[in-house]
Amino acid sequence: MFYGLERPTADVDLIELAPRAAAEIMMGLGIRGGPLHQKYRIYLDRVAVAAIPEDFETRLVEMFPGAYHNLHLMALDPYDLALSKLERNSQKDRDDVRFLARSIPFDLDIL
After folding, report:
1. Interior/surface letters 61-77, b for 16+ CB within 10 angstroms, e for the rest
2. Strand pairing partners for 13?
3. Is the pLDDT of residue 44 over 60?
4. Each residue of 3-24: pLDDT tens digit?
5. How far, in Å, CA of 11 to CA of 35, rounded?
6. How confident is the model at residue 85 (pLDDT cuts 50, 70, 90)?
7. Rounded distance, CA 69 to CA 85, Å?
8. Mean pLDDT lowest among 3-7, 37-41, 83-87, 107-111
9. CA angle (104 as vertex; 68, 98 as ends), nearest 5
10. What is the pLDDT of residues 88-97, one digit of tens each?
11. What pairs with residue 11 in β-bridges?
């Protein structure tokens, strides 16, 4: 959704970069049926197995700079997102990559 795809979703996929203790607190509050879900109808979905490109942390994009004092929500850059979706190769993921390729558009030398 960060890049403009308008497929409705109620979960936020996450890859933990925070210290383990902070991640455990976030997941406790953000699980389906937890306080975050009950109040805002959104929940966190920990990505257990994901093929994320090497050094993706260096290319993360802050989603809402300055919006929160103690929270920084980051998104994969569009190239890393596309590569991770192509690895899964589901129809939904291929459609997402097609959307990204049309809306960004991709520089094939970078990709």
Report:
1. eeeeeeeeeeeeebebb
2. 45
3. yes
4. 888 776 656 666 666 566 666 7
5. 14
6. confident
7. 31
8. 3-7
9. 115
10. 888 988 998 9
11. 43
Q: What is the pLDDT of residue 88?
A: 82
Nearest to 84 by CA among 109, 110, 49, 58: 49
Structure tokens at 47: 């990505």
Q: Whole-prediction pTM value?
A: 0.69
For 87, the token pair is 């690895």
Residue with tokens 């936020």: 12
Query: Quick one: tokens of 101?
Result: 């390729």
Cα–Cα dist 101/99, whole Å: 5
Residue count of the chain: 111
Pairing of strands 61-62, 43-46: unpaired
Under DSSP, is residue 77 helix (H, G, I), strand (E, B) or coil?
Answer: coil
